[in-house]
## 1
Amino acid sequence: MNLIPPDAFAGRQRVDAAVDLDDVSRCPCGARCESCGVERPDLAVHTAHTQLGVMCLTMCPRCAAADCAPPVSLGTAVNLVGQHASHLGIDVDQMAAAMDAETDRRSRPASRP
Ligand SMILES: [Zn+2]
Ligand SMILES: [Zn+2]
């Protein structure tokens, strides 16, 4: 049974190849850590993968190392995901497609013995 047209995969791979969801080169760095609120000179932008999408956050090294999710509301998270999509030059639908491709890639080795 081969019901999936090859084009469906070709389209996904194209999006996946074109978009690095963890690219923060165009993301603005904030003045304080968005997780703990500390102000310090060595803050950096990091990405956080959520079920809504990938968002970018300014975090201090401590919070970034702890990999803790910042305490943002659902509405804020949606906004942050949308903002990061615009930093990448894509829309949220393209981001979702890229995340699907990423999930496929990660789950593939585990599903194959
Ligand atoms: Zn912090
Ligand atoms: Zn961003």
Note: The chain has a mean pLDDT of 83.
## 2
Amino acid sequence: MVSTSHLFDPNLLGDDLKADLPQGYVIRPLSQDDFSKGYVDLLSTLTTVGDVTEESFNATFQAMRRSNIYYITVIEDTAAERVVASGSLICELKFIHSCGKVGHVEDVVVAKDQQGKKLGATIIKQLMVLSQNLECYKTILDCSEANAPFYKKCGMIEKGVQMAIYFDKDGSNGADKKTSTSESSKETADEVITKGINGVKL
Ligand SMILES: CC(C)(COP(=O)(O)OP(=O)(O)OC[C@H]1O[C@@H](n2cnc3c(N)ncnc32)[C@H](O)[C@@H]1OP(=O)(O)O)[C@@H](O)C(=O)NCCC(=O)NCCS
């Protein structure tokens, strides 16, 4: 029986990488309790997080859990009861490649005071194990040039070109903007579920 507090079944994570972690650190699925273990603070190392209350965190967590495509994996320093690293795998269902699946890696982050301890590499390796356990035929990600050497050290190769378009609240686009100013993050998870994403009901 899978705990409802976990985002996904922990059995999907292999045991092999646990030895790579410093003593007292565990790797596991994101849990709803992680709001109180500094998860939102950790994400702020990566980018602007905005206003995320415990209520909106829980609603989004449950929406992700129901959709069954989110595999956010975290490392916790159990002595400090603090989440110190995270990476997201989103498993996309496709018709091509015989109804195959593609993994998308997003939001890889290690707390500033924990960088350089191979936690980032362990998260990436774990997301690759997960991708294979989920039978993805490939897993891809976008990153800055500055971070490309890190992903290459994790065994990934450069492929293709990254494209982006950013949308403002009024529906206009700001193709020249470097960061998103989308207000869609202010929608509640229930609104997202009702509307779906790009017309696809969750
Ligand atoms: C990028 C990041 C995830 C790396 O995590 P980390 O735990 O510090 O990295 P690791 O200790 O696992 O490093 C693994 C290897 O990659 C190298 N490495 C890490 N970051 C690197 C970088 N930016 N450029 C070049 N090499 C890098 C390390 O030196 C190490 O090399 P080694 O195996 O030869 O010793 C982390 O620095 C981070 O969270 N940065 C801020 C957020 C961010 O930019 N996220 C990525 C979004 S695409």
Note: The CA atoms of residues 104 and 140 lie 5 Å apart.
